[in-house]
Design goal:
Blueprint: E1 2-8, E2 18-22, E3 31-35, E4 41-45, E5 57-60, E6 66-71, E7 74-80, H1 83-95, E8 100-102, E9 106-109, H2 113-122, E10 125-131
Parallel strand pairs: 1-4, 2-6
Antiparallel strand pairs: 1-5, 3-4, 5-6, 7-9, 7-10, 8-9
Length: about 150
């Protein structure tokens, strides 16, 4: 089994041997065994607390292979509104410690009927989608990422 121990930032010029598609929750696992699309098993042994992002490059322990991390499409709720309403919704979601992807045009979160109802009541448009999910790390998140 291949063991990957180092993370590098995204670099389109890096030659990769494998790609590994992971959900947002799976990208928070710094020590875990995963199965690639071809059936090969790989083990991640990264620094504790490492959170992987779309495009990150992992290097195996003898530095002979590179693997690119891909943000796997997953079910999400996308909340759309103008900025003042998005800010209000982000405040309420933050009070509930919900993992949220924040952009100037939408908020994205994992499916939850109670939160969807709250956001609708606040006046946001809610769309169910299956797309890559990149939630914010938070104020005390992974400081080693550039």
């Amino acid at each position: 089994m291949l063991t990957f121990t180092q993370r590098q930032p995204p670099n389109d010029d890096t030659i990769v041997t494998f790609t590994l598609s992971l959900t947002a929750e799976e990208r928070t696992r710094s020590r875990h065994k995963f199965t690639l699309a071809n059936g090969k098993e790989v083990f991640l042994r990264l620094a504790r607390g490492t959170v992987l992002n779309d495009g990150d490059i992992l290097i195996n322990e003898n530095e002979s292979m590179n693997m690119r991390i891909i943000a796997k499409p997953e079910p999400v709720l996308t909340a759309l509104a103008e900025i003042p309403l998005l800010l209000r919704a982000a405040y309420h979601l933050g009070n509930r410690h919900v993992s949220v992807e924040i952009t100037p045009t939408y908020l994205r979160l994992s499916p939850d009927t109670v939160l969807a109802a709250m956001l609708t009541q606040l006046g946001l448009e809610i769309k169910e989608e299956v797309v890559p999910f990149q939630p914010e790390l938070g104020a005390y998140g992974n400081h080693s990422h550039t």
